[in-house]
Design brief:
With about 300 residues, the chain is an alpha/beta fold. About 40% of the residues lie in helices and about 25% in strands.
Length: about 300
């Protein structure tokens, strides 16, 4: 019987060329030519990919909100000014707060003016997605659910959600587990991470959602709700204002990374904003803002 196996001859320098039985002279394609063919076969997809990425990168920069803001000289920030100390109106009806100062620093780094667009919390993401604002800076927690709709920068602040508890109705409450019972009432601000956490951890309780933070806190102050689930700094302020009717359980219910939100498909702007945030953290300006507003970055 004939031996139909094929032998493999290794080229003198590198590479492997298939041959029939015998030496390389029997193969019409030389080792050098074979190596060249293999090289270009491997290189071609890489060149095509690099070329495609170059075109894509150009398109991304052309559509970047940061570039467009720089071109028109204005950056539009969506915010809900009802969240001390991040954004609120002072006695002169001026918009002030941590996020306000941070946005103006970012505007200065970009060389543009900053315009604040005040919207209700439940409308803030649709406002951004609809193109009415360039960014959201409003004490917004970056969550996986929200990140399906918008993109986020790296966090610029970390906090927790915890409980403001009624000294009368919630006198026996020691933690979030105690609220997960029929007859318990948990107050939340609609659409916040405190709202989401209450639905997750207290499915057996009655959840009362309000549009305004103060209304949710007042449910506890007036003894209508056992507890209000919200961010640590605000919970402490509500207790400070109502020491006789409330108490604080500061055990973390959830961890809250605050970040800047921007529209999907804009990695150029996200990268630039992250660079600015890292610079502010390294040069101490971010810590100065923490100190100015009495904030502790809780990781």
């Amino acid at each position: 019987m004939h031996d139909c196996r094929v032998s493999m001859q290794v080229c003198p320098t590198s590479g492997v060329a298939p041959t029939g039985r015998g030496d390389s002279s029997a193969n019409p394609v030389s080792c050098a030519a074979m190596r060249a063919l293999i090289f270009f076969a491997l290189l071609l997809p890489l060149l095509a990919a690099c070329g495609g990425q170059g075109m894509e990168a150009t398109d991304l920069w052309e559509n970047a909100v940061i570039r467009k803001a720089a071109e028109r000289g204005k950056l539009v920030i969506a915010t809900e000014p009802q969240f001390r100390p991040f954004e609120w109106k002072n006695d002169k009806n001026e918009l002030v707060g941590f996020d306000v100062d941070l946005a103006r620093i970012i505007g200065k780094e970009l060389g543009v003016e900053v315009e604040f667009l005040e919207v209700a919390w439940t409308s803030i993401i649709p406002t951004l997605v609809g193109g009415k604002a360039d960014l959201i800076m409003s004490g917004m927690t970056a969550t996986p659910e929200r990140a399906l709709t918008v993109s986020y920068t790296d966090p610029y602040f970390h906090t927790i959600t915890c409980l403001l508890v009624s000294t009368t109705k919630g006198a026996d409450i020691r933690g979030i587990d105690d609220l997960n019972q029929p007859g318990r009432v948990v107050a939340v601000k609609e659409g916040t991470t405190g709202h989401f956490a209450a639905e997750k951890y207290c499915p057996k309780a009655k959840i009362v959602s309000t549009e305004l933070e103060n209304d949710a806190a007042n449910e506890v102050v007036q003894g209508k709700a056992d507890a209000f689930l919200y961010d640590l700094w605000s919970i402490r302020q509500h207790h400070k204002n109502n020491p006789d009717t409330t108490r604080v359980i500061a055990t973390p219910v959830s961890r809250e990374p605050y970040a800047i939100a921007l529209r999907k498909g804009d990695p150029e702007s996200a990268a630039w904003l992250n660079l600015v945030l890292r610079t502010l953290r390294l040069d101490g300006r971010l810590q100065e803002l923490y100190d100015k507003y009495g904030l502790e970055d809780v990781r």
